[in-house]
Each structure stands twice: as C-alpha cells, then as structure tokens.
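Can anyone check this?
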Amino acid sequence: MNDDWNAGERRWAADAILQLRREAARSADTHLLHMRFAGFPGIDFYFKDEAAHPTGSLKHRLARSLFLYALCNGRLREGQAVVDASSGSTAISEAWFARLLGLRFIAVMPACTAPGKIEAVRSLGGHCELTADGECTQSRARAIAGGGACFLDQFGLAERATDWRGNNNIAESILDQMAREPCPHPAWIVCGVGTGGTSATIGRYLRYRGLDTRLCVAEPVGSGFVRGWRGRDPHATATHPTLIEGIGRPRVEPGFIFDVVDAVVEVEDADSIAAAWRLEELLGRRYGGSSGTNLMACLQLAEGMREQGCNGSIVTLLCDRGDRYAQTLFDHDWLAAHAIDPGPAHARLAARLQAA
C-alpha cells in the first residue's frame, strides 16, 4: 500500500510540474518598452512590463518558481493547503497558481495592504489572514504551516528557487530582448528588493555572462536592504517606514545578496508616487509605486551618465498593475491622510525629463 501511495504522489507531482511548465510556455514573455527623454540625449530608457503577466506583476515568475521548488523537493503534495506571507503581489500570483493546481491557498498579509490586492487574492479563491501592525507575517505563516500546510516561504527561498543561469529568467529575457537595440548591453539594470530574488537573479546572471552591465537597487529611504548593503550587515533594520508596497523591507531577508549589487539609490515616497503618476501619463496605464521608485533611480543614474558625457541604455522594471492602488497611491484623500502631496515632486520630475 505504501508503494502504491508513493507512486500516486509521484504521479500527481509530475502532473503538477507539467501543468506549471505548460503555463510557462503559454505565458511567453513580457514586453520591453522603449522611451527617450529630451533631458537625456544619447540615453535610451527601457521598461520591462512585468505587469503584463497573467497575474499582473513580476511575482508571477517567482510564484511559479516557488511552486516548482516545493514540488521538486517533495514538500508539496496532492490536496495540501499552501501558505505564504506577502504584502500582496506575490500572494495574488500564488493564489492563481494554487487554483491552477486545485490547492487551497492562504495568504498572510498586513492589514494595511492595498484593498485591491486583498480582493484580488480572494477573487482567485485564496483566503487572507490579515495581521495587525507590528505582527510578523512570516511567523504567522510558519504557524499555519505547522498545521500541515506547505509554506512557500518567498522571503526565505526566492533567491534559490529561481534559476539564475537562464531558463528564460528575467535577466536572460532582458538581454535577449536588448540584443538588436543600439546599445544592447545596458549601462545599468535597475530593480527594487522585495524578497531579494529579482536582484539576486539579475546580478548573478550579469556575472555569469561576463558583462559590464551594473545592477542598481532602487529602494525607499532607510530600508533594511539599504542599511544592510552599505554596511554588509545581515542584521540591519529599516530606519523609516514606507508606503511603497512590495519593497522597502523592514529588515534584511535571507534572499538579500549584497555583493551582486553595484549601487543603491534611495527614493522618498512622495517622489515614487509622483513617478508612478508620471508613468501613467507616459504609457497610458497605471503602474504601482515600486515602478515609480525604479524610474526615479533610473533618472539619477542617467544624470550621472550625462555629467560624464556617456551615452548608453538603462533598463528597469514595471513591477505591477496600478489599478491595485486605486484606493491608495492614486487616491487624493488617502494621500492627504498620509501627509503626502505628490504635486511638487511631480512638477520637479517633469522638469528633469525635459531640461538638459
């Protein structure tokens, strides 16, 4: 009987892995959008639209990898519930994949998470466990896993679950799409740090390929990664809270790989929000606050290139759909309640884009 049970479990796992591989083939790739700004002649800006994934964010790649990692390590079985701690976008993607595999999903999320994200998880059949301010979502997720659920553990496993050598990871995809552009090897690739998986994947892949392209992390002011990176301190904690969801972790997470990052740019929340508004004007659709953080870091790097008389290209990510933040970052009353006025920052940004 035990052999029959094991054989059945292996058949189910093999079928689940096949479903995930088929989904990856159907998802194909995301667009790389090209822009030029009058204030930065000779510098091309590229925005990889990760919001185009079926689940609306770059976390679609991570969620698939986490499910595959759990399956291939024998941690996820037929009928088992799945749990993870997330501020929203990863949870949405995980809920989507759990539904694909016919599994129950539980998202442990801060109660302050954007309402649009909570509703998205629920609409996909997921259950949201909302934690109070100061309560550790990861501890709650581990406690739920103690009752038999599979803990996907995005913060603990992101950098190892992703295949950084290739397999159409985000870094390989960017460089393949850049191959026929005027400056195919970017001067910089810019991303934020949520779990650390994206920055670790990009930084490792650039070194694996032997490229001179440098990696910059764009983060809210005083985040755990910023402080940890500067002092190479794995125990560093944030000095400032942030309204930008998905990045700006309060502490250094296990997936934060400092030594593959060449530069860190800190961005004020008001500037990130103003840049998200500007992206809507430039691209005709809304993106979240972390995409605005990325844009602000790109401009700082471009100003450095301009001062040095350098031409070239900069690539960054559009991380998730902005409609998830209709009740927060794009709501004037919500912003006023948080003492944020993006108007002055928006005006400064417009001037930076236009004036050399």
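Reply from J.R.: I decoded it. The longest strand covers residues 43-49.
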